[in-house]
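Appendix B. Worked example

We walk through a single record from start to finish. Start with the input: the chain for Alpha-fetoprotein-like, Dromaius novaehollandiae, length 598.
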Amino acid sequence: MNWKTIVYFILLVNFTVAKALPRSYRDVGKNISHILLYSFVAMIMFAQYVQEGTFGKAVKMAEDVTDLAKRCAAAGKDNQDCLKPLVSTIFLDMLCQEEDLPRFTDCCAKKGSERNDCFLSHKNSTRGFISPFERPNAEAACKNYSQHQHSLTGFIYEVSRRHPFLYAPTILSVAIHYDEMMRNCCRSAPKVMKPIKEDGLKQEHTCGILKKFGERTVKALKLAQISQKFPKADFVTISKLVIDIANTHKDCCRGDMLDCMHDKILTYVCTNQDSISSKIKNCCEKPLLEKSECIINAENDDRPADLSPHIREFIEDKGVCERFAQEKDTHLARFLYEYSRRHPEFSAQMLLRIGKGYEDLLEKCCKTSSPDDCCRRGEEELKKHIHETQSVMKTSCDIYKEKGDYYFQNELLMSFTKKMPQLTSAELIKFTKQMTTIGSKCCQLSQDKLLPCAEENLDLVLGEICRRHLANPINPSVCHCCSSSYALRRPCMGKLEIDENYVPLPLTPGLFTFHEDLCTTEEEKLQMLINLIKYKPYITHQQLTSVTAAFTAMREQCCKEENREACFVREVSHFCFHLNILSQNGKMQYTQEHRFLH
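Next comes the structure step. The output line below is what the pipeline stores for this chain.
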């Protein structure tokens, strides 16, 4: 069967026909729609594992895997090789037989899970590792739509190799949107590409949490999120969903894109929707891929009318310590479930901190002679933390609303350059810009939606910083925040101060050199601010204001002149005068360093 035809056809298949997707080669061979899906997922896997591999190799690999599935289906029960795991054995065996893959020689020398882990470690989601995706020529595609149909395979290949952590269901869903976009002659191309980037970041983020903090943390995070989304569902139902979803993430994160298909979870949710949520009826009527996206984006269900506002039994009940001792994880899970379903206005990360605080409280109080009194005192600490978190977010939004995007980013740059001076200017600008975007997105929301929006989006940025640290260590303080506790990562980063071990940049002729493009770009101004703080990390806010005023005056004057370049060369010495009046913890020795400026 022609591969291009297979891929285009699979996009038109109503996936709801397949009650359960294939989990072995033999299952695949029994159903033609399974064969198509199997082929498609095999291509995604190859493109994600071997990002620099050619499109032709990806197609060949998919065809080989599909042919093997058909042979296994016809072989009966006698062929034990067909029962081997798809990814960790069969798929990687086939990859290692391929020629022209020198980057993976060390991986192919390993066995079992170590081999798969080695391949996964080579995945690179860094922007620019693969050249940016080029949108198709709209006019040409619309003139010859049949030609576009054949290029759809290439689109899936290109998306997969640029987003090696993106889950297969997401890629398939994006493919459908892409197909719809092409039918409308590419008028909405940006709407298709943006979710790919956002979804890829979220899914890589989840895999990072799983890798660094383990399955228990992922389960706790999903427990908080699902309990908020489905507050009417009972604890047993929520627990089942948490386990199934955590297992699906494990499959996806280890590259097993066939088991990554979450069809069983969706079937369970929709079959039991009456007891789970009143907000997903329309979602459950959609095809599989649209159903998944719809349920994920559905609003939280209404809380049960008879749900009490407090959960006093977890503090006041005489049997709390006994239950904690006998079934610790179940007791803590019940607490997190009950607390989360009552507080949709809290972020999942804050709920995890509350859960950790409750665990620490019981660890401490259940060892005392009067656990009841101890627990009540701990409850006050919990209320204090909630108030502090809400105050931090409110203060940040007040600053954003008062100063706007540019000055808010400046404030963030000053703070994060002092905390993480080892980051490049481009990285500091990128991360603080992302944080500023969070301000514009979340600070306009009502108080009950502010915290989930702000902290959950900020968590994605901090996750990216921590992955950057993992690849290229930043400093010990950042290492501590990224490694000690997922729930406490945001408060930990917030409390970081100046990196005292950082050696400031020396004053060189090029450190404060300005050109006429300063008149047209914001990035040059941000670069000056970063260099200034890396040069004088202990600069005070007052001193920075003085230097910034001098910089602004120089910029305004030179940008008015005809020969801007000459003006900047002339005026830079006046600007540097303001730098030279800073003290040793903000002061230069003018006579020693001034010569570098001329």
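Two observations about the output. The first helix runs from residue 3 to 12. The mean pLDDT is 82.
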